From TrEMBL:
Family to which this protein belongs: Belongs to the peptidase S41A family.
InterPro entries to which the protein is assigned, alphabetical: ClpP/crotonase-like_dom_sf, PDZ, PDZ_sf, Peptidase_S41A, Tail-specific_protease
NCBIfam families on file: prc (TIGR00225)
Organism whose genome encodes this protein: Viridibacillus soli
SMART domains registered for this protein in UniProt: PDZ (SM00228), TSPc (SM00245)
Swiss-Prot/TrEMBL keywords: Hydrolase, Protease, Serine protease, Signal
PDZ domain residues: 65-130
Record bears the keyword Oxidoreductase: no
Pfam family, one: PDZ_2
Signal sequence extent: 1-25
Protein name listed in UniProt: PDZ domain-containing protein
Amino acid sequence: MKKLRIYVLGLIALFAFFTTSVAYAAEPLDEAKELVEKYYYPNISKTALNSNSIQEMTSQLDPYSVYMTKDEYEEFANAIDMKLVGIGVTLEEDPKGIIITSIMEGGPSDKAGLQPGDIIQAVGDKDLKGEASQTVWGLITGKENTEVTLTIYRSTTNSTFTKTVTRKVINIPNVETEKLAGNIGFVRLNSFAENSGKEIQKAIKSMPGMKGWIFDLRSNGGGYITAAGDVIGLFPKAKVGYLLKDKDETYSMDPVKQKVRWNAPVSILTDAHSASASEMTVASLKDQKAATIYGQTTYGKGVMQLVFPLKDGSQLKLTVGEFTGPNGKKIQKKGIKPNVTTPIGKEVEYSHSDFLKKQLKSYNKLSSINLKATQKTITIKSSTKMNWSTMKKAKVSLLQIGGKEQSMKVQQALKKQLKLTTNKNLKPGTKYYVVLKSKTRKSPGAYAEMKVAN
């Protein structure tokens, strides 16, 4: 196996690498045929090469190889970079049309006076009753600074009116962060955009003192391969990026070592919608034991595409190879099984709970507590595992599994039991750890698992 080391400044550099040796033909069709014949993985039929149009040719390739006009490619690239041209709303289907579920603060719809709960009944002359939200999305998005006229029904005033909204570029945060209980940092990456590596480094620096990290790649459909190399380079144990097999041979690709890296153990969250560059990253880190994977088996897209610019400004996105993790296990149409399989929607809870259990490993475990959501008082009884004098002086904290830390007050310390009260109502259907941290070195403390009923 040949080892190849490539240093790339960005996606455009990759384009140049693959296209400089191609002699452009007079027409895009001939140009596209030459690219397909030279680079398409795994092979191309003579029938496809005899096609009369680029669309006819790509229809005979795999689903990921497509021809895009200049405008279509711009939309594709903007989607990866989380930049969309629209009116700044999220939508859901409704029997009366399409309901606006949220509005971006300061966005076009907000400035136009639209509100969550408003129902879009028509876009222009198009009646939306019974239409899918995807169809509507295609109607209200478009070119920047163009206008779209909406017919709105507002239930709070029982009124119907029209609003003309100007489409603008909507920048959606690509990296989201939160500090969870027990000093566990949560970082979600929505897309493998060009600056993902830098944005994650910024997130790491913004949360000093974390004892562990949860890196969320759920529903992340991928993006740029260069970004995957940057993200893998955030993990100190990752010495190999991934293996790439093209038409000719197999290469070992190196990760791009980053200045700021994860400084504590990392758990990665996946689901059935984690695909492409997400799977490239997960496979690399799982094979090298650089992180623990929680969730469900990933989508199973183990082939890589490059986008080739054609002479007329259009673009050809073409499958050029198949990638795997360092161990060479096939991903395409199989996906990656996590280290810890969790129920759907419980990925954060499971990974966070495991981090907290490690922190409480030396603590004495007390009897479990079952509580109603309406209760705000918790009773902790003394046990043989922890003496009363120690427990009475302990520092008390309430750690929500999958959430944040809550402060608690000691209401009473009588009859060898503590009565604790929370400052906020407890969330139904959640689990907590009630932690009593001892002030003496002899005894680290104790904890009890607590379930809050629905």
